[in-house]
Write a structure and sequence with these properties.
With 367 residues, the protein is an alpha+beta fold. It is 49% helix and 22% strand. A hairpin with a 2-residue loop joins strand 5 and strand 6. Helix 4 runs antiparallel to helix 5. The relative contact order is 0.09.
Length: 367
């Protein structure tokens, strides 16, 4: 048999693979170099992006923690300063809430000491380094401390001049003016420092930083001229001093809590027996002067308690025409058919001549 040129060594005919088959096989064996480079570049870019994101989050977290720490340090300083200043205000309020001739003897030195203490507080406030986000608000914080010093600086001579004058109304006008300055410091602090600082924190979505609040005068009624007249009267000798205008308080209403039922003096009242009765007493100032330290008491003679039970309380200040309530609790009564008697008394205040509306008696059956 003739040997063909195209036969292999075994005599089998040589069959060449189709071109298309060789091309596909080649593709499976190795990818083109251009595509391999693109994949590597994409992987590097993804890794770089993830790294940048992680670093960014880490840096932001560190910056946020640093900012919050800076804010807390700042407001802690502010809080300590306003706390010391509020303590001075509490001492001023005590003079107005508990005026008597013994206070008058040391009034000049007392007000002088408070004035000097507030001056030191102003110096401390000026030295506080506020974060950039609170520079404007900090200026109001410092200003409110300065306003308090201004008020105290004027209150001392105003009080001394008023105590030396014959006309309480004339002296009270200047005292009231200085007290209004002190009251203005509370408004300035709350409106322009506290509220605005709170808004800055809200805008930054910061919830774990607390802005300190501040109140120099316990009761805004202390800044009224009527209160000043009342204080001067008491400093000059209590009830025997010159009395300007009508003085008098009246019992307005009595409510049992937690039901909120208003007790009647004409009808029999029915209440639930309890070991801790709670009554809300409303008192009205029907006079022409602000009254301070108005006494209020409730006395209960109830089944199961042979001896009368009494609870006392005090309303610090109440302006003319104003009504204020006080909660008195702690009385006890057992259930039974017997009628209990609750007596409520408010006042009288110094200079009060009409006292028939200062008290009320209520019949109660506890069930």
């Amino acid at each position: 048999m003739p040997v063909s040129f195209f036969d292999d060594e075994e005599g089998e005919p040589f069959e060449e693979e189709p071109t298309e088959v060789r091309r596909k096989a080649g593709k499976q064996r190795r990818p083109p170099s251009g595509q391999s480079r693109l994949v590597r570049v994409l992987l590097i870019l993804v890794a770089a992006a993830v790294l940048v994101l992680v670093l960014s989050l880490g840096i932001k977290s560190c910056l946020d923690k640093r900012k919050i720490g800076e804010y807390n340090d700042y407001f802690n300083q502010v809080g300590q300063i306003v706390s010391d200043s509020d303590n001075i205000g509490a001492q001023v309020s005590a003079i107005f809430q508990n005026p008597d001739p013994t206070v008058r003897q040391s009034l000049e030195s007392k007000l002088g000491d408070l004035q000097n203490a507030q001056k030191q507080i102003v110096d401390r406030a000026q030295q506080v380094d506020a974060p950039d986000d609170f520079k404007d608000e900090n200026a109001w914080f410092v200003a409110s401390m300065q306003v308090r010093y201004t008020g105290l600086n004027g209150l001392q001579p105003a009080m001394l001049n008023a105590l030396g004058a014959q006309d309480n109304n004339a002296g009270a006008e200047q005292v009231s003016h200085e007290m209004l300055i002190l009251l203005t410091s509370d408004v300035a602090y709350d409106e322009f420092f506290y509220q605005r600082a709170q808004q800055v924190l809200r805008d930054g979505n910061i919830t774990d930083v607390k802005v300190p609040q501040s109140k120099f005068l316990k009761d805004p009624a202390m800044a009224s001229q009527q209160t000043a007249v009342s204080v001067l009267e008491r400093l000059k000798g209590g009830a025997t001093a010159q009395v300007s205008g009508l003085h008098g308080v009246a019992l307005s209403s009595v409510k049992a809590q937690p039901s909120g039922m208003t007790l009647s003096q004409t009808d029999q009242n029915s209440l639930k027996a309890s070991d801790s009765l709670d009554f809300q007493v409303e008192v009205e100032n029907q006079g022409e002067a602000t009254e301070t330290n108005v006494s209020v008491s409730i006395t209960l003679t109830a089944p199961g308690h042979p001896s009368p039970q009494k609870v006392d309380g005090t309303i610090p200040s109440i302006a003319p025409g104003e009504k204020k309530t006080i909660d008195l609790n702690g009385l006890a009564a057992d259930a039974g058919p017997q009628v209990a008697i609750l007596t409520v008394q408010c006042g009288p205040v110094p200079g009060e001549t009409k006292t028939d509306n200062n008290s009320g008696e209520f019949k109660i059956v506890f069930n």
